[in-house]
Amino acid sequence: MESQNGKDTRYVKVPDGGDVALIFGSRDVFIKMIEETFGVTGAVAPTEGGGDGALIAISGTEPGKVAAAAETVGILSGIVGKKGELTEQTVRYVADMVASGKGGELSGYDSDCICVSARGRPVHARSVGQKKYVEQIKKNTVVMGIGPAGTGKTFLAVAMAVKALRERQVSRIVLTRPAIEAGEKLGYLPGDLQSKIDPYLRPLHDALGELMGPENYLRATEKGTVEVAPLAYMRGRTLDDSFIILDEAQNATFEQMKMFLTRLGNNSKAVVTGDLTQTDLPRGQKSGLGSAVTILRGIDGIAVHEFTEADVVRHRLVQKIIVAYDKYEKEQAAEFQKHRSPSRYRKL
User: Fold this and answer.
1) Contact 61/7 with Cβ under 8 angstroms?
2) Spatial distance between the Cα atoms of 179 and 236, rounded to a whole number of angstroms
3) What is the pLDDT of residues 239-263, one digit of tens each?
4) pTM greater than the 0.85 cutoff
5) Start-end of H helices in the chain
6) Interior CA angle at 215 toward 211 and 220, to 5°?
């Protein structure tokens, strides 16, 4: 580290000089994000002797923040070297993790390719939480992934299912969802029963189509290698040699959740995903997912993974929306408890 005129400077070596443009981003958008996060400035520095690679100089008045910004650039350089690209979400996530003192957890978080999509794009975990989720799916027979929207709960589970099918670890994939009427009545939708149910299953169709390709997905459904069906259709079945995913499980009742989990057959794996803050069950009815987490946590072979807003990989505003709603709900609950009138009657 150099100190001059009250400023400290750290240099980060980028092995491939061509990667500097990717780290800085279009119109320097990525380096500006790092500068704003840590209160530093970043610039390309000349290399001694004109050797291979390039240097990025990080300068600022606070040595700790300069070091953190340099650590961020170093991690991003490693990601670019492996993947050949950066996204705004990745840059923001890495910077936030380093700023909160969790940079050490980022080692290799996106290094393992789960599978390759139909378009040839590798599917990676995009946060530390996602990587831990994938590891738990590998190690356990039943995994419950709980957390807010946009954290990749369902897509990663589908990716792991496609990987297992391609590697012949299982002979079929079964994806299911509760067909809960989220404020709208099924009877008013046009078409037969299947047409009424299909909109509820569309996210699962989309994920499989993206990973397998539309034609391969269609052939797989025709052969029965892939099945997408409402949760009610699972009753009475034993699912052997299968990778089973229950999505939107917060909308499953206690009885439905018990029914689903007891469908598990030999050489099968189940992943249950849901967001306990977005249940569409009738008022007063408890979610089967919440009960299952309480009852089954700690059993060998069953893992519960909880995502946070830091794992959100959709538009950055989604993360802020989730935090804002969570804050509002906590304030409302506190206000309710504050003004809750005491009982007028005492037990005699």
Assistant:
1) yes
2) 18
3) 999 999 999 999 999 999 999 999 9
4) no
5) 19-24, 29-38, 63-83, 88-99, 128-139, 153-166, 193-212, 214-223, 254-261, 288-296, 316-339
6) 75
